[in-house]
Design a protein that fits this description.
This protein is α/β, with parallel strands linked by helices and 409 residues long. 28% of the residues lie in helices and 24% in strands. Pfam families: AMP-binding.
């Protein structure tokens, strides 16, 4: 078994000691240089932050609050510990939420996850994450470059051009969503295009159903998935299929009871909370809104870090569709434009393992022009395509839900 470095096979006690030595330094650094943490941690003694118990007493910073934080303290909500001029890039994710990339090549620590997926120096990686507005493509490109891989910036869409590039360049590996990889392969098979050079893939942005993994495996592609966010970078990654996700060595992960900061017992489902150690963008007890649970024991690959069961839903109504977060606030913005609609609800499902959005609207009257206008407004807010379905007044459940995730995996 090959490992990215010796950190992956450390004794758990050694890892804990080193992580919490880093935590004390990071808390001190964040208090001194990031305005948000100067306020939030004003009464915290950094030298006392040397255990999980001490960590659990620190306040959370919630992803869902970033929009308002950034409005009150633009552009990054005071979470950045350096000037904007020191950033290599800045990004805008739906919300909008603005993110910063430091000068480090692998700012989001993706190299380790790619290595576990079999990526090696000299590989050509076909990158099908978006290079527009959001950091997705750059997260994976930074990790690939750190490993010594070359990258083709395919981006999203343009299926025929993507396939032609694969035929001509013969890439070794793919990064992107699993659903788009399947689309590419199906189109290539229909047209007779030879893209069999693809032998491995690291996918993210959406769930990897077992049926899709098997389908890709039958075509000679070994697939591993990773769990990452725009702010944090890699949280955990897959090293063996169906053996959970190994927590990244640069992340300190807790599972807490939703709505609180209280850690739950091993195996209990709770919200994923992450602390990272980037000096330019320190995140301390960052509550992702995602649900997961800790798996017992050590990964069969020999890596000794904590394992997560994977993504198990959302602690709030924010959801991820085709790799993009969709927030209740965005649906509310759409609703404000249409006073003739009494209630609006976004339903997300996945027929044929493909994410789909349907904007359900209660309206006394409807027509094709209104439906088209709503589709355009939804796309403007979320950067995603969806359809519209109308209901008579009172036809939608009166349960307070703005986003309903009905996907089955």
């Amino acid at each position: 078994m090959s490992y990215y470095d010796t950190l992956e096979t450390r004794a758990p006690a050694e890892r804990e000691a080193q992580l919490f030595a880093q935590l004390a330094r990071q808390v001190a650094h964040a208090k001194a240089h990031a305005p948000h943490y100067a306020r939030l941690l004003a009464d915290v003694d950094p030298a006392a932050c040397v255990s999980r118990q001490a960590l659990s007493r620190l306040p959370l910073t919630r992803k869902r609050d970033l929009i308002e934080l950034q409005k009150s303290c633009p552009p990054f909500g005071g979470l950045n510990a350096g000037p904007r001029s020191r950033a290599r890039r800045v990004f805008s994710s739906p919300g909008p939420i603005y993110e910063v990339q430091s000068q480090e090549t692998d700012h989001w620590r993706m190299a380790r996850a790619l290595y576990a997926a079999g990526f090696r120096q000299g590989d050509l990686v076909h990158n099908c994450f978006s290079y527009h507005f959001t950091p997705g493509a750059f997260i994976f490109e930074g990790g690939a470059r750190q490993l010594g891989c070359s990258v083709f910036p395919g981006g999203t869409g343009q299926t025929e051009q993507q396939i032609q590039a694969m035929v001509d360049l013969r890439p070794d590996a793919y990064v992107g969503t699993p659903s788009f990889l399947r689309i590419l392969i199906e189109k290539a098979e229909e047209s007779g295009a030879d893209i069999r050079s693809l032998q491995k893939a690291c996918v993210s942005g959406e769930a990897l159903p077992g049926v899709v993994r098997q389908w890709l495996g039958e075509r000679g592609i070994t697939v591993r998935q990773c769990y990452a966010t725009a702010e944090i970078g890699v949280i955990a990654y897959e090293s063996e299929p169906d053996a959970g996700l190994v927590v990244d060595e640069g992340a300190l992960v807790e599972i807490v009871r939703p709505g609180t900061g209280d850690p739950v017992a091993e195996g209990e489902v709770g919200e994923v909370v992450v602390t990272t150690f980037n000096a330019d963008y320190p995140l301390i007890r960052f509550a992702t809104g995602d649900l997961s649970a800790v798996m017992p024991g050590v990964s069969p690959c020999g890596r000794t870090n904590m394992r997560l069961k994977g993504w198990m839903g959302r602690a709030d109504q924010t959801t991820k569709v085709k790799g993009m977060f969709v927030h209740p606030e965005q649906i509310a913005e759409v609703a404000k434009r249409y006073p003739q609609i009494s209630r609006m609800r976004l339903v997300v499902d996945n027929p044929d393992a493909q994410d789909r959005m349907v904007l359900c609207c209660e309206a006394g009257a409807s027509d094709a022009a209104l439906a088209e206008s709503l589709v355009n407004a939804l796309r403007e807010q979320t950067k995603l395509r969806g359809s519209v379905e109308f209901f008579a007044p009172g036809g939608l459940p009166n349960d307070g839900k703005v986003i309903e995730d009905k996907r089955v995996y």
